[in-house]
Design a protein that fits this description.
By secondary structure, this protein is an alpha/beta fold. The chain contains 22 helices and twelve strands. About 40% of the residues are buried. The structure holds arginine.
Length: about 575
Amino acid sequence: MIAIKRKISEQIADILIKINADSGINADTVEAMLEYPPDEKMGDLALPCFKLSKVLRMAPVKIAASIAESFSVDSVAKAEAVNGYFNIYLDGEYLANKVISEVRAKGERYGAPELGEGKTVVLDYSSPNVAKPFHIGHLGTTVIGHSLKRLHEFAGYKCVGINYLGDWGTQFGKLITAYRKWGNAQLIEAGGIDKLVELYVKFHEEAEKDAALNDEARAEFHKLESGDEDNIKLWRWFVDISLAEYQKTYKQLGIEFDSYKGESFYTDKMPAQVQKLRDMGLLKIDDGASIVDLEPYGMTPCLILKRDGSTLYPTRDIAAAVYRKKTYDFDKMIYVTSAGQSLHFAQWFKVVELMGYEWFDKLIHVPYGTVSINGEKLATRTGNVILLRDLFTQAIAKVESIMEEKNPNLPDKDKVSEAVGVGAIVFYYLSNNRIRDINFMMEDALSFDGNTGPYVQYTYARTCSVLSKSADCGECALKITADEETSLLKTLSRFEEVVREAINAYEPSIVTRYILDVAGAYNRFYHNCSILGAEDESVRNTRIALTKAANTVLGNAFGLICLAKTEKI
Ligand code: ARG
């Protein structure tokens, strides 16, 4: 559609320039104004001419009429002026030839905008805090982050996915204390992260009654920081146990990271940055702590060192950013976290700017809203959490039972149930604008009829089933005979624009909604047009080719949001 839109915009711009050469209008301005009308009866593309009436000093109705008078482009079947709009109807066969040959030629690259050649993007996402449970709150950073990685890769960027594990901090002091008091190595080896979480929860319960425990924990962390061998051994063990658990979830989602350098990696890289801040006169002592005053920028101060000289979350982020710039020389670095951390990122991004790092504006924070389940918020400390693992297990079990009813003889039932169960959760989550708070309703996510993961995966399987019964005709003549065909073609032609939009807005839900559009258009076509049974050979070939194109687009788009391609459901 991009190419077609371009041609149309160029011609309209030519016409408008003849009306007024000084208006400053060109093909770019026209292209930006072209809209997809909500109702196909109003055309496939429309130019709202009221947007031009000021620069042209002309009534919208007259502008539309003037364009209609001399407009002629070969991809356009009909164009007319209606109430100040210039409405354009595309030629079905032209579109079919264009879209189908392009999808065929590009295959897995169809829809990919060439934006990132020679550029590197670093993405910092998922990043759970070790020994705390991987709960539904981490779903957002994990799937939004990975989707943004896929989108950028698709657009040709070199991407580095970093899992910045929260593997350092006072929680390890708590865990070490708790382990020495109540822990049991064998039980932990057998029970994994759950046992660590139990210890963590127990620590907080006990510390409520006996505040001295907190001092002990602080002392243990201090020992860890100063390199105490026993504590380091324990720490490493806790990290390994946690990682093993996270890997299971990542595997289910099809996610791999390029680096697991967590917070602990930066301990020895912070002093140089603290020194630089000090040398530049940016550090202020406030009640014993070292801060960077951000009042001139309308923010509370950024904390660099605590009173006891220990470093903080922003200190580590600054050191990590400097290290990553040196290591990867990124063109963009994207951080995906809950919106609760927005101030933290705004603060330390500002500090990086004040430090004179000219790449400060390449740092991007991508926030997302909170998740609750059936209206319930989650808390880590009390152990009142829904683990991602349990959510997946529940979803998979539910899908298994649905499958048992619908398609008991399906081969590889376990694998398919896993793909559909996990996919349902991912899709449901990514259907929302990321910044909106979401209330997770399991029933809705798993429905096969709604706008859900199972529904779109089922549609994908449907295209596979049609294709398994027919051969693609190759370069055969195409014949468009039904509105549903044109409508599907138009939807398929928008893919690249959708990908661009999603990248520009850092918004995977744009892809998710598009997948629903494609699935809807394909299903309407499937129900109203006989494909394999079409008598006319060209019609049949066209419908098979359309199915193949829909299959490719759905498959490519699934890849962008971590949704598995299910050939059979
Ligand atoms: N570990 C942090 C948390 O779970 C998220 C880390 C985000 N990345 C960063 N560079 N600060 O809240």
